[in-house]
Amino acid sequence: MTAPPRDERLDRPATSDSTARALVAAIPDPIFRIGVDGTYRGFKVDSEEDLLTPPDEVIGYSVHERLPVGVADAVLAAGRRAVSEQEPQHIEYTLEVRGETRDYEGRVVACGPDEFVFIVRDFTERTRQERELERERDFSRAVVRSTPSFLALVDTEGTLLGVNRALERAAGIPEEAWIGLPFWTLFIVEQDVERAKHDFERLRDGDAPGVVEYEHVAPDGERLVVDWTATIVHDAEGAPRFLLCGLDITARKQVEEEIRRSRARIVSAGDAERKRLERNLHDGAQQNLVSVSHAVHLALRELRSDPDRAEQHLDRALEELTTAHEELRELARGLHPQLLTLQGLGAAVRALAGRAPIPVTVVMVDDGQRWPPLVESAAYFVVSEALTNVLKYARASSATVRVAPRDDVLVVEVSDDGCGGARPEVGSGLGGLRDRVEALDGTFELDSPPGAGTRVHAALPLAAEP
Ligand SMILES: Nc1ncnc2c1ncn2[C@@H]1O[C@H](COP(=O)(O)OP(=O)(O)O)[C@@H](O)[C@H]1O
Ligand SMILES: [Mg+2]
Questions:
Q1: pLDDT in tens, 440-464
Q2: Beta carbons within 8 Å of 101's beta carbon, 6+ residues apart
Q3: How far is the CA of 424 from the centre of ligand 1 (A)?
Q4: Residue nearest to atom 19 of ligand 1 (CA)
Q5: How far apart are CA 110 and CA 113, in angstroms?
Q6: Does the pLDDT at position 4 exceed 60?
């Protein structure tokens, strides 16, 4: 813009009266002309709302009659300074206007040897907005500082402009060591870097890839799995930036993996169990029934010619039938312990212990008490599998079974004085027990030092839901 010709500069004494009046009218702020003695000599307001008193009660009055004493003192002092020093003055003050505190700033300019002009601007709204903005900024800062999420601000090249504390801590890299580098150069594992670059290009081209998952290496060498999302934001100059927000899902991934493995174990345990049943039926009852059928055929054929032989065949058939019946009953018992359903855990555990060829001590607290069916059957299978193991592997001289409610769990413990050294990873029984117990949100512990016996400990929540 070129400067106007010298004689038209509005702040020159040559400015005409009409120009000065037009200028005053154009200024939206209230203007007061005040003598150095503090008396109002003239004013201009766009609205009477801008006055603290009716308009005919201004001129001739003193600032001390119209303003609180502190403000009046400040205005007058500034006015006298403006006149004596011939320098515009600036003051800020607050006033109670119609029950509300409002913020003002005043410009004070000398306009003669004994008077000054006082131009007032109400900046309450601006202060309010600034305070609001400041509060928002404080809030955002607090969120950024305290959130467990990882936050990184990058420019359109992917260069890091800032990271929050959570990310600094997780990566073990101080912010200063990071700023200015592309965000994929540190922290992201090697094999995910290319993908991260590609994802960022898509983001920049407006084709945001949504949630992306990268692996990272923590300072202790642990791998972290983080889900990242990006939001476009703008800096103070309006330049586009990307706010990358990461959620550490490592723990969730581990739990998911553990659940997946446990499901696989349950499925394969089910398959193994079905195979075992099939084998037992095939080798046991099915063989007996084939023999029965064979014997009955022979008996039928010889019924008339040799009744004695026929009777022998029938005797054999009867024997085989009895055996088949027992086989089937034995099988059924393994599937579903009837004693447990009918008489409860105490009776069923004592029956298991009674069948063992070594002495088994049973300690039942609250004997006779019934527990939720899922808890009873889990407890039963813990005792049954653990005792079977004792007999199969432990070479123990005795064993003890303890069942006792404690707080809101039922504690089941089976211990023996055998050889110890149990290894759940080589078999399927103990792993299956752990799955069964954990499926009820219980805890399962195995203590089996070589040479010092084995202790199987399960705690089953009594409020168990499947
Ligand atoms: N009470 C015990 N004393 C000594 N060794 C045991 C005992 N219980 C289990 N083991 C050992 O731990 C292995 C795993 O047991 P388990 O998970 O029940 O599998 P399995 O299906 O072979 O019974 C067994 O093969 C056995 O060698
Ligand atoms: Mg076993």
A1: 889 999 999 999 999 999 999 998 5
A2: 94, 95, 124
A3: 6
A4: 427
A5: 8
A6: no
Least confident of 3-7, 174-178, 319-323: 3-7
Cβ-contact 398, 361 below 8 angstroms: yes
> Are residue 75 and residue 121 in the same domain, yes or no?
yes
Residue numbers of the domain that contains 368:
337-461
Question: Is residue 389 in contact with ligand 1, taking CB distance under 6 Å?
Answer: yes
Residue 422, ligand 1, Cβ within 6 A: yes
Q: Are residues 118 and 181 in the same domain?
A: no
Task: Give which of 102, 108, 111, 110 is closest to 120, Cα–Cα.
Answer: 108
Say if strands 40-44 and 89-97 run parallel, antiparallel, or are unpaired: unpaired
Mean pLDDT of 386-414: 94
Rounded to whole angstroms, how far apart are CA atoms 188 and 216?
Answer: 5
Residues 369 and 314 in one domain: no
What CATH number does residue 430 fall under?
3.30.565.10
pLDDT computed for residue 34 by the predictor: 96
Write the CA distances from 50 to 44, 66, 73, 146, integer angstroms: 10, 13, 20, 45
Residue 241 contacts by C-beta under 8 Å, 6 or more apart in sequence? Answer: 153, 154, 155, 156, 161, 232, 233, 234, 235
CA of 375 to the centre of ligand 1 (A): 23
**Alpha carbon distance 137, 131 (integer Å):** 10
Residue 261, domain member (yes or no): no
Ligand 1 lined by 426 (C-beta under 6 Å): yes
